[in-house]
Design brief:
By secondary structure, the chain is α+β, with helices and mostly antiparallel strands. The chain is built from ten helices and ten strands. The chain has two domains: 6-113, Phosphorylase Kinase, domain 1; 118-296, Transferase(Phosphotransferase), domain 1 (Orthogonal Bundle). Bound molecules: adenosine-5'-triphosphate and magnesium ion.
Amino acid sequence: MPIEDEETTLLIADIQPYCEGFSIDKKIGIGGQKEVFRGSNSEDIKVVIKLVKIDYFWFGNQTIMRDVDAEQRALREIELIKNYSSPYLPSLYSDEIDYVVINGFTYLKFIENYAGDESLHDMINARGSLDVATVTKMINHVTQALSLYASDGIVHRDIKPQNIVYNQEHDRFVLIDGGVHLSPMNGTLSVDVVGTRPFFSPEQANGKRRELDSRSDLFALGITAYCALARMHPFAVGVMSKEQFEYNRANAVYPKLSADEYGERIVAIIDRLLQKYPHARYRNPDALLLELNKEEE
Ligand SMILES: Nc1ncnc2c1ncn2[C@@H]1O[C@H](COP(=O)(O)OP(=O)(O)OP(=O)(O)O)[C@@H](O)[C@H]1O
Ligand SMILES: [Mg+2]
């Protein structure tokens, strides 16, 4: 077993033998949990192949142990995908889940339909700030996805530009990566503070899992929209201790966006999303949709 380097990531050649019927052409992501590849089947239908490492090194790289949390997270993500059918949420290519062993480590493998070529993160990187119409559309589509989740008491907990994919063909945004979602049906992960720190709401930052509801996702959506519009993060995200971060996120004021530059509507919507107290934000995703629809009238 070649076990010298835990950071070693998978190559196309490593996974192609386990992907019969698909031709893999590109690695599209290495995130916190997953290694993500693009491929296509014999009819040229694009898919996304996701591998989650569910083993880790234990005790000075001598022993490989099963990472129960990573496995649970992946299984939860798959269940979540199966439960919803929406243009704004991902879908599975097939219900098949495989466990494959590569370089001594076990990976859980599943296949999603291809949601689009670029993440919102890629778009911001490539184009700089996005225009008001595009950001409004992004808010609208992600909120439609969140509305479905909220009706079942589900909190996504990881809204950020990397987890929103743009589908150019259908001109729509898709909210992906529900690996750390909170649901009334499932138990807790071994850690409650999950997600991506720069996008935490104040209540997510202080680990109050029981107080989290869809309004926390709305806060993260507010940060995401702000970043897309202004190409600047509204809050301090530098190196700081957990305590400093919690304090900072709960008390920070952010530079208001200019209504002259972006128009009053979007500035007011983002401001409402970024309120520090959940009750000062929109009551739920549907309330935000109502506001967005008003705008279009
Ligand atoms: N269904 C999909 N269609 C198109 N691109 C996708 C799809 N799923 C993922 N991607 C791309 O791959 C990247 C990584 O995928 P994903 O967010 O599922 O894994 P991850 O980032 O490892 O998870 P984590 O948030 O734990 O870091 C995304 O940012 C996106 O660019
Ligand atoms: Mg992700």
